[in-house]
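Re-running Alpha-galactosidase NEW3 domain-containing protein to confirm reproducibility after the cluster update. Everything else is unchanged from the original entry.
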Amino acid sequence: LGDVESGWHSNLSQFNIYNLDPDQEVNVVLSVTCPSDSVKDDWSLASVGVASSNREQFYDNLTTTTSVRIPERGASLTVDVDSMNGNPGSTMIYSMTLTNNGTDPDDFSLSVVRCDGCSAWGVSLSTSFIENLGAEKSREFEFHVEIPPSARNTDSAVMGVVATSVGNSSKSDEVDTTTLVNKIFDHRVTWNGTQILNPGDTSFFDLTLFNEGNSFQSYTFELTNSCPNDWDFEDTLPYTTANLNPYNGEETFSVSFQVPSNANPGIFNCKLDIVLDEFGSKVDDFTLSVEVEYYAEFTIDVIEIESFAGPGTAHVFSVDLTNKANAQDEIALHVDGLPDGWEACISPSECVSFITVPKGDTVSFELS
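Result of re-run:
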């Protein structure tokens, strides 16, 4: 084994070969090691000589030249689509490709660069390390970005992914992704249920609208043709809210009304449309209900309050009965305070115990 340059080392896998038959071959390995501080194109000669142990006149040698080649490291990172948008709470998946554009196989580490103020955003890589990637070979992986459930439509996140060569950490590449938040529209309305009232009563509904979307929005409440006339709903409606905060910004207002004095008993409904002002389009409707109760009110007038006749003679009184309730009524009649032995009869046509009187009408009959 000959000499090599200073700092270089050489070695053979073996230094003796015994009992080598004619035409038999044996492989011997020459190892040449350069200094750790070698630079590209440093070189050294290394020579190997062989001589017969039995017949010294048979001798041969060879000389090798070893030069230093420094592997070139490089990384190229690309993303199929660098900008995506989604709803709050959804996950965007970016498909990425790493290519080793160095001269030798290499390992690569992957990392995420978060944007400032993005701590609520979830991020993850399908792998954080790519091993033994050949020169000019590529490997695909995924980058996941989760939009916070409370994200507003004005929020966005620019996140970077970095691929770094393990062989040379100064060699890396980075791509950025931009994730935007869709505008979500949602709302909720509450009110104080069905009211039970009498004709002529004045009342109001307390309505509260909650903006459950992720952007500032205002809404308008509008009357529909289903609302009863002459109830004064138009004194309050239409009504437009303020520009409400995202995620449960709320506003409460009152819708006043008056039940007409001539309203019949029953349930009266007033359907309201809810209009999203940003687009001027109806997004919902709901119904306010009022139950008008039946109530009894009547007057009874005896036209003649005195009668003079002899014993055994019938006394006849003319009576007017007026129904002032808000519906037809069946009114029971009876006579109190008669002396013993006296009899009474209520007779529109024959003796009766009740009379049916339409709403607002007067029925005349005789009391004998």
